[in-house]
Amino acid sequence: MSRLVRYSRYLSRFKTPIFPRCQHSTLPFSTTTVDYNKPSRPDPPPIRKLISTEFHGKGVAFCSQECKDNAKVFYEVETKADWLAFDDYCRNKGLKYPLLVKRLACMVISGAASAESLDILQPSNLSHEMVLEMEEGLWFAEERFCYGKYFRRTDGFPHQEMVQQSSACIEAEAAVGNAVYMLPSLYNHDCDPNAHIVWIDNADAQLKALCDVEEDEELRICYIDVSMDHDARQSFLLQGFGFKCNCLRCSSGD
Ligand SMILES: C[S@@+](CC[C@H](N)C(=O)[O-])C[C@H]1O[C@@H](n2cnc3c(N)ncnc32)[C@H](O)[C@@H]1O
């Protein structure tokens, strides 16, 4: 199973944070260990089934007419320029970050996203190592992602496993499916998070701060049940998500 699918499934389970840093918050918290086989939390909202449609001659499916209309606007902006050399360069180098920037820029130009959406990119503040890490994290690529209400599918691209997993879920008409959320995918994990993702009934996601956040402070969410002890958390994150957690709580030995 791809890291992406595992990640989206874990995230989907955590409608509420499990180990909040700020106990004064009024959010419903729990510090109990989650049994992943029998989730005690409400399921995430169902992902709407994609409707088949033909879009600019390419086979593209959307979850609703609204998604289709939203996508059309920025897709038209995107296709006004010749991106062939740009896309080829990114594919050859395995770069996804510039593709994300392109897509976001076209969304902003078309009015499908606000200019503030670009704030998250801030390339001038990123070190080379951070860009490399982002590249690693951007497995949602340009081929298939959800941004707000937008869900697009194209064919003939490299990340087959991801597509097959998601498509299989949709084809099985499962009540709960997988979606990839572009901006929330950029949040790093912290065993003492300062934010968490709230799922809304229509499958939108919102980020909620768990405490006062300083300007320039990184927003970090939790991917796992952080009521586990240090070793269990490290092992869970390493085996389940493929990284060694470097958060303050872990580095300070709990
Ligand atoms: C969903 S992505 C998070 C966003 C990613 N850093 C990016 O820039 O796209 C998950 C990846 O971020 C990195 N990461 C997230 N939280 C981390 C943590 N606490 N310690 C070390 N690496 C972390 C790992 O490489 C992980 O595979």
Automatic annotation (TrEMBL):
This is HISTONE-LYSINE N-METHYLTRANSFERASE SMYD3. It comes from Salix purpurea (Purple osier willow). Gene3D superfamilies: SET domain. InterPro entries: H3K4_H4K5_MeTrfase (IPR050869), SET_dom (IPR001214), SET_dom_sf (IPR046341). It holds the Pfam family SET. Residues 45-224 form the SET domain. It comes from the Eukaryota. GO terms for cellular component: nucleus.
